[in-house]
Amino acid sequence: MAEDFARAVEDGLKLAKRIYFGNDRAVAAPRLASPMERAASAAHAHLPTAPMVYAVIHEPGIVDNPDLPSYQPHVHGRCDPPALIPLQLNAIELDVDCYLDTALVTVTGSWRVHCVMGSKRCDCRIAIPMGEQGSILGVEVEIPRKSYTTQLITAEDGHELEKTAQPQSGGFLKPNIFTITIPQVDGGTNLSIKMSWSQKLTYNEGEFFLDIPFHFPEYVTPAVKKISKREKIYLSVNAGTGTEVLCKGCSHPLKEKMRNAGKLRFSYEADVLKWSNTDFSFSYTASSSNIVGGLFLQSAPVQDVDQREIFSFYLFPGKQQRTKAFKREVVFVVDISKSMTGKPLENVNNAILAALSKLNLGDSFNIMTFSNDTSLFSTSMEPATPDTVERGIEWMNKNFVVADGTNVLPPLEKAVEMLSNTRGSLPMIFFVTDGSVEDERHICDAMKKRLASAGSVCPRIHTFGLGIFCNHYFLQMLANLSRGQHESVYNTDHIEERLDKLFTRALSTVLLNITIEPLQNLDEIEVYPSNIPDLTSASPLMIYGRYRGKFPENVKANGLLGDMSSFSADLTVQSAKDIPLDKVFAKNVIDLLTAKAWFSEDKQLIEKITKLSMQTGVPSEYTRMIQLENTEEALPSDTGGKKQTGSNGEKQKLISRTIPLQNFGIGFGDTTATRENVPPGFGEQRAPDAAEKFVKAASSCCVSLCNKCCCMCCVQCCTKLNDQCVLVFTQLFTALACIACFECCSNVCCACGGDE
């Protein structure tokens, strides 16, 4: 899907050459990448690197300047798939609020349909690239006499709506790029768009990092005289610690507006000739060298479906330079079913090699592979000496060979059994798979029983899911049961990077078996996640919960350090008046509850998730996103009924329409795709057969020719052809047209059920 999108944008940039901007044009025509550049960045060429809007062009003949027509010869043929012409950006504002480890981002901008005749219309596609673990919250669009707003409804209502209306194209182009289409916008129209999403801050050695895609290509700069444009950025930081926050780095020249304990506020406003050509990045530190924590209390918002009180506590690991590291016993369990062929298994192999290099001499390890059968590097745990690690690498090179089947329970049981007798060490299992199996709930039950009898420090099961065919909620539930962590990657481009992130985080544990006292004395208490994960030096620990009753004034965080000594720290209890805790933790809570609902099959819990999703605007597996279209239409002066008065004083009526969007939930795994060994990936589609390719090429040949030469060149060329050549070309194109017509008729017959 991403590659198709990039090709459509490349076609759109070629079509944009038809547009005439007059003698005052200040920018050059959109520069197409050279063949060498396209080969170097084929996977990312023309994908959005900032919020973008595109004109969806099916008919190339409508492409022209709406203000200054060029009267070019008509172009015959259609763009199939449609070309995407990036619209010109007239104004942009970025507003970011950072709370704890989460950023709430809002972008407001104005784009103009500069490439379509004023008498024609086209769809406009909005593309929103987001940062780390981005989650779309909403899109609002204003055009003359119309407005569009996204909204979440229940999955049942969504299914009913799809019976009467065709879902509009949209959803996730890639896991971090959300798209939505605005139908039929007039050429020359200005679109005012507000888009919002949430994303996570990354953390490294006591420093938080914020990265937001904000790199606009040169061709979205309006092609007029050199008039400066206003670019605005507003940033606020609330670290929640009450200690001084130090700014470490920034991509744009921000001006400090406010500085208080734990809080910062900045702004940037500038007149620019070209829009930002770099992503917006900001880094800061707010923690000490030791483990520190705090606890927030907050009343539930009035509209909240859960009226219990809210609490949240955090632990920052500090730099941990003098803290003794845990002795680690690690088992890698890797899926080698046939769907892992090629790049996925190769990337997993590379990530495990890097993880083995991070083990200390006192650690031990083992490696397992599974398909229908289970293979072991060793029948017992092996010390992480250089010689043993080298033998492990040789074993992987020989045994990381794909085979049939995906049998999950035996290798997990064997790994837990191997680690059941550990003493004075931290046992952990890294479980990597790209598939889904029928008995996943049984596997969770079996692991729950085994872990309960595994001693005071049970094995941590850290799970990693590849692609969209594995059940990520099963893997998250498996991790939650053991205080482990879950990481996922839907796109095969980032397997090694994300897996290395999981290994680094889990292998850098600094505090385990964490408990908060005396939470057990509260009524109706619920903690997300229910089993508190371990604290690692690679990320802070953030926990959210609900309760009734009076919260105790003295609260302690307890746990075990690397030398297995006890740790205890007082948590500062404070009121979180200016931190929207329900929004900050919404996505995490919905994901955890969804895993629990999948495991328990609890309908009341599903209803709770649905209400929470609709309340916070965070999409879930049990909700569907829709567009609400409101259209203002002028009324005759003698028309009765309810009327509104527009800005120009004329009477108007408001017509509303609901447009369903495609479902973009990841689902609960695909056992059929697993059995058929379909490779992992995101947005995978079946390959077209030979007939489809031929018809598509035939129907698009005219458009391709227009992309490669101007209309005047075609006219001049045709005047030089002799009669015999003209006859041959006439017969050829007639045959191609008949093929396309036959395909069209076949599609109509299929749609009618073959009766007409």
- The count of helical stretches stands at 17
Structural class: alpha+beta
Percent strand equals: 25-35%
- The overall average pLDDT, rounded, is 85
Protein name: VWFA domain-containing protein
InterPro entries: VWF_A, vWFA_dom_sf
Report what the structure shows.
- InterPro entries: VWF_A, vWFA_dom_sf.
- By secondary structure, the chain is α+β, with helices and mostly antiparallel strands.
- 26% of the residues lie in helices and 33% in strands.
- The strands form 5 sheets. It has an 11-stranded mixed beta sheet. The chain has an 8-stranded mixed beta sheet with strand order 28-30-19-18-32-31-27-29. Strands 20, 21, 22, 23, 24, 25 and 26 form a 7-stranded mixed beta sheet that branches.
- It is globular, with a radius of gyration of 29 Å.
State the main characteristics.
vWFA_dom_sf, VWF_A, disordered C terminus, 17 helices, eight-stranded mixed β-sheet, 756 residues, VWFA domain-containing protein, 26% helix, alpha+beta, eleven-stranded mixed β-sheet, globular
What secondary-structure arrangement, pairings included, does this model have?
Blueprint: H1 2-15, H2 35-40, E1 52-57, E2 83-86, E3 88-99, E4 102-112, E5 121-129, E6 135-143, E7 146-154, H3 155-162, E8 170-174, E9 177-186, E10 190-200, E11 202-204, E12 207-212, E13 229-238, E14 246-250, E15 255-260, E16 263-272, E17 280-285, E18 292-298, E19 309-316, E20 328-335, H4 343-357, E21 364-370, E22 374-376, E23 382-383, H5 386-399, H6 409-418, E24 426-433, H7 440-452, E25 460-466, H8 472-481, E26 486-489, H9 495-507, E27 509-517, E28 523-528, E29 535-536, E30 541-548, E31 555-560, E32 566-575, H10 581-584, H11 586-600, H12 603-616, E33 623-634, E34 644-645, E35 651-660, H13 671-675, H14 690-699, H15 701-708, H16 711-719, H17 723-751
Parallel strand pairs: 3-13, 18-32, 20-21, 20-24, 24-25, 25-26
Antiparallel strand pairs: 1-2, 1-5, 3-4, 4-10, 5-9, 6-7, 6-10, 7-33, 8-9, 11-12, 12-17, 13-16, 14-17, 15-16, 18-19, 19-30, 21-22, 21-23, 27-29, 27-31, 28-30, 31-32, 33-35, 34-35
